Amino acid sequence: MSENTREITLDEAKKLYNSNEEAKTFLLSKFTKDELEGKNIPTQEEFDNFFEENIFSQIDYSKTAFLDWYGVSSQTPTSRITLRNSNNEWLFDYTYDQKNQRFWYSYDRVYTIFKKKFLLQDVDIDRLMKSLVEKHFNLDECQLLNTAKYIQSW
User: Of 14 and 113, which is predicted with more confidence?
Assistant: First the structure.
């Protein structure tokens, strides 16, 4: 993003959406209709707080490992890292290589928790997760994949 641009907030988008017909198409490319019409979509802050309290807190950093391109544990540091909980169950896997940033997250232990808690559509979870990943993992141009989507694409 260039220094002369910034992201529009949801509150700003709601005001424009309700007052400007020409802006609706653009705004619908950035937000869902439910969000713009004021339905029960959590704010990014609410989503992030829930993540920090209920998901991020599960990470057992002693189980952190580097992975090679094929997902096999590597003894030497790589740009791919996996994070697990205390039961050694997989939560996240991310690659911070500038040319190929990816962030995978568990369908069972992450995605479904958000879906149940907030009753969100996939597009809403994806948008909120993208901002969350930018903030917590410093991955601003990454491809997000929950394991269900990733497996379906194979």
Answer: 113
User: Among residues 61, 17, 46, 54, which one has the least CA distance to residue 118?
Assistant: 46
Q: Residue 73's CB: how many other CB atoms inside 10 A?
A: 10
C-alpha dihedral sign at 121, 123, 127, 130: positive
Angle CA 78–57–48, to nearest 5: 90
Question: Which residues sit opposite 100 in a β-bridge?
Answer: none
Rounded to whole angstroms, the Cα distance separating 142 from 40 reads 27
Question: What does pTM read for this prediction?
Answer: 0.68
- Tokens coding 23: 């802006």
Nearest to 132 by CA among 53, 24, 37: 53
Is residue 25 within 8 A of residue 16, CB to CB? The reply is no
Name the pLDDT band for 149 (thresholds 50, 70, 90). Answer: low
Confirm if 142 and 102 have CB atoms less than 8 A apart.
yes
Alpha helices in 1-154 (DSSP H): 10-19, 24-30, 33-36, 44-54, 112-118, 122-137, 147-153
Q: Is 4 helix (H, G, I), strand (E, B) or coil?
A: coil
13/80 Cα distance (integer angstroms) = 36
